[in-house]
Specification:
By secondary structure, this protein is an alpha+beta fold. The protein folds into 2 domains: 3-192, no CATH class; 195-330, no CATH class. It has 11 helices and 15 strands. It has helices at 32-46, 65-74, 80-98, 156-161, 177-187, 195-213, 217-236, 243-250, 257-265, 277-282, 322-330, and strands spanning 3-12, 20-22, 50-55, 103-112, 115-131, 137-144, 150-155, 168-171, 189-193, 241-242, 272-273, 285-290, 293-298, 306-309, 314-317. The strands form 4 sheets. Strands 1, 2, 3, 4, 5, 6, 7, 8 and 9 form a 9-stranded antiparallel beta sheet that branches. A hairpin with a 2-residue loop joins strand 12 and strand 13 (293-298). It is elongated. The model has no long low-confidence stretch (mean pLDDT 86).
């Protein structure tokens, strides 16, 4: 992913003094080390739980100067160093109120094909070791990519094109609500997509589709694996699940079948869904076969449509599939 601009500003937080900004005067030169940092930063960011949304409308209470400053940068009315330094100044005040440790604000402007992204993250340091030219072991400060409590990623192309509600994402730090909310306010971010809820709805739609089609167990398992593999791969790359593309992958002979099922049943899903990795990891199918009885159901149905009574070793199915119900009635 080619780097168009990159910069690092340091925010120091002494023990008994206000936080202070040590700004860089110009962007970083391109280097292999910068490429490696960008790759590691993207990988770490995609593994975090995130909120998804957009910039609040100008004039609203949630609006921030950042969106207009970014527009000036894109129009080449503002240079990258000034854009990032202005944001870093606001971030310094936020950190002074909520954090007691120093950190480096990394901001990257990158291009990937026709897409263009702005990524920013506050990274803290950890103690490590290095080997110098004399093969001696020496202490070294390292950027801790795993400790990323504040970070955001903006799809610049989607933002400028308009019409999208999910071109902006930011890390949702569950351990520091006030800090996380303050960071979203600096961005002027307005949450408009519930990634976890959208992913759960997608999985529910898929379960209904499999049941409706009355697929054999092997075919059902193959389609489940296809969905999870595709959605997980999109999550690892920070890209949304596209319903039409997923539908084509699930059934090459009827590439619109799953997409039409979603639209006809009106699940309220957006054409593109930001996949939630935690929700995907929880999705699996319980299967079992014994004594002429074969049972298979999706894990999220346990506790709702399906209940397991461990004390009496009973499985209770509350919503019997229509085709099975008709077969049972015919035996009476």
């Amino acid at each position: 992913m080619p780097i168009l601009n990159a910069i690092v500003h340091r925010i120091e937080k002494p023990a008994d003094a206000p936080a202070r900004l040590l700004p860089a005067q110009s962007p970083l030169p391109l280097s292999d080390a910068l490429d490696a940092l960008q790759e590691g930063l993207n990988k770490a960011y995609h593994g975090k739980g995130k909120a998804w949304g957009r910039f609040a409308d100008e004039g609203s209470e949630q609006a921030s100067p950042f969106a207009s400053e970014l527009a000036d940068y894109m129009a080449e009315r503002l240079d990258f160093a000034t854009l990032s330094r202005t944001f870093a100044e606001r971030l310094t005040a936020l950190l002074d109120a909520h954090l007691s440790v120093s950190g480096d604000l990394v901001m990257l402007d990158t291009r990937f094909g026709d897409a263009r992204f702005l990524t920013l993250a506050l990274l803290h340091h950890r103690e490590g070791f290095a080997v110098d030219e004399h093969l001696a072991l020496v202490p070294a400060h390292q950027l801790n990519l795993a400790q990323m409590s504040l970070a955001a990623r903006l799809d610049l192309a989607q933002w400028q094109a308009g019409g999208s509600r999910q071109y902006l994402s930011w890390v949702r730090d569950r351990g520091g609500k006030a800090l996380s909310e303050g960071f979203a306010a600096l961005l002027g971010a307005e949450e408009s997509i519930d990634a976890s809820g959208e992913t759960r709805t997608l999985l529910k739609a898929f379960s209904d589709y499999v049941e409706q089609e009355n697929l054999p167990e092997e075919a059902s398992r193959e389609k489940t694996d296809t969905l999870i593999d595709y959605a997980s791969d999109q999550a690892s790359r920070g890209e949304p699940v596209t319903l039409e593309e997923l539908s084509e992958l699930l059934d090459e002979q009827q590439p619109k079948a799953f997409y039409d099922h979603i639209r006809n049943a009106d699940y309220g899903l957006s054409p593109e869904i930001p996949p939630d990795r935690r929700t995907l990891n929880q999705f699996k199918r319980f299967t079992g076969r014994a004594g002429g009885v074969s049972i298979s159901f999706d894990s999220h149905l346990l506790g709702s449509s399906v209940e397991y009574d461990e004390t009496q070793d009973r499985l209770i199915i509350k919503q019997v599939p229509k085709q099975l119900k008709e077969q049972l009635k015919g035996k009476n």
